[in-house]
């Protein structure tokens, strides 16, 4: 039996090899750019694009990404992630623990619709590229979700009848498409889905922030999994702000309900052990 060779220094060095950044004594490079050249010359949004995508964005790409990230930064304490951050900070775990607790609530339901919508848009475009009619594709997608009793991701909102972030984001997309900065294909897809929902329902189900930002990410060429990561980056700003504000209240162990309110009990009626 041949024993495996002992790892070499090169094996150890290559264990975490990366094309994202070069870090050596007195050297910090992001995708090949020396950090000292980037500081003061490249924005944080451009740095996100650079590290994730590998090169610097065009001004048009940067503007759309910034709009998407800015629009999802906060949604108040009624958002579970924000509420968790505020409760966590009163438990004495510090800002980093509060932020981590909040980010961990951003799952498939709260925070995941953008990723699902982006995947839907990519799949829809493949069908359109194959020669199918866009409106018919949209109708079939909506029908499929309705038959399964599901919600079309990126549409409707539990809090807003009309999401105030929808129109300005779509306007930016329409203007970018008009200037030839984006293809406009995914913008056409999302509006076709919105029209299909309006035709099939008793009342309109307008696009929400997840649908609008997913369209931006689709037009910018991001993969679906990155939509959630970008949303986490965006919402972390609001999470930090709320956790910091709550830390100033000096309140300890702040629960989901203000005292002396308690959650209604729906279990077995009061009962006792024998002899009591």
Mean pLDDT: 94
CATH topology of the domain at 113-228: Cytochrome p450-Terp, domain 2
- The helix-and-strand class reads mainly alpha
**Shape category:** globular
CA-atom Rg in angstroms: 24 Å
Strands of the largest sheet, in order across it?
1-2-3
Low-confidence stretches: none
Strand content: under 5%
Describe the protein.
This protein starts with 8 loop residues before the first helix and ends in a 29-residue tail after the last helix. The longest helix has 24 residues, at 224-247. Among the domains are: 21-57, no CATH class; 113-228, Cytochrome p450-Terp, domain 2 (Orthogonal Bundle), CATH 1.10.230. It has a 3-stranded antiparallel β-sheet. Helices cover 54% and strands 4% of the residues. Helix 4 (59-71) packs antiparallel against helix 9 (166-178), helix 4 runs antiparallel to helix 11 (209-219) and helix 7 packs antiparallel against helix 12. The chain is built from 12 helices and 3 strands.
Gist of the model:
The protein is mainly α and 276 residues long. It is built from twelve helices and three strands, in the order αβββααααααααααα.
Set out the fold topology:
Elements: H1 9-14, E1 21-24, E2 27-30, E3 33-34, H2 35-38, H3 44-53, H4 59-71, H5 80-89, H6 94-103, H7 113-129, H8 134-148, H9 166-178, H10 185-200, H11 209-219, H12 224-247
Antiparallel strand pairs: 1-2, 2-3
Helix pairs in contact: 4-9, 4-11, 4-12, 5-6, 5-12, 6-12, 7-10, 7-11, 7-12, 8-10, 9-11, 10-11
């Amino acid at each position: 039996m041949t024993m495996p060779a002992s790892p070499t220094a090169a094996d150890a060095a290559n264990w975490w090899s990366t094309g994202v950044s070069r870090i050596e004594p007195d050297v910090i490079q992001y995708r090949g750019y020396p950090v000292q050249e980037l500081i003061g010359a490249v924005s944080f949004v451009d740095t996100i694009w650079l590290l994730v995508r590998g090169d610097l964005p065009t001004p048009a790409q940067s503007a759309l990404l910034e709009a998407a990230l800015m629009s999802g930064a906060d949604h108040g304490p009624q958002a579970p992630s924000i509420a968790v951050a505020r409760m966590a900070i009163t438990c004495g775990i510090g800002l980093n623990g509060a932020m981590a607790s909040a980010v961990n609530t951003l799952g498939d339901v709260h925070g995941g619709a953008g990723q699902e919508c982006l995947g839907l848009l990519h799949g829809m475009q493949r069908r359109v590229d194959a020669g199918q009619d866009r409106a018919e594709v949209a109708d079939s997608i909506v029908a499929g979700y309705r038959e399964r009793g599901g919600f079309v991701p990126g549409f409707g909102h539990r809090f807003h009848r009309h999401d105030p972030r929808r129109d300005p984001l779509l306007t930016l997309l329409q203007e970018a498409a008009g200037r030839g900065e984006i293809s406009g294909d995914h913008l056409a897809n999302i509006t076709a889905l919105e029209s299909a929902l309006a035709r099939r329902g008793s009342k309109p189900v307008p696009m929400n922030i997840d649908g609008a930002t997913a369209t931006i990410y689709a037009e910018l060429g991001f993969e679906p999994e990155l939509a959630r990561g970008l949303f986490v980056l965006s919402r972390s700003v609001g999470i930090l702000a709320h956790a910091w504000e709550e830390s100033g209240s000096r309140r300890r162990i702040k629960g989901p309900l203000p005292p002396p309110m308690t959650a209604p009990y729906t279990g077995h009626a009061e009962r006792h052990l024998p002899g009591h």
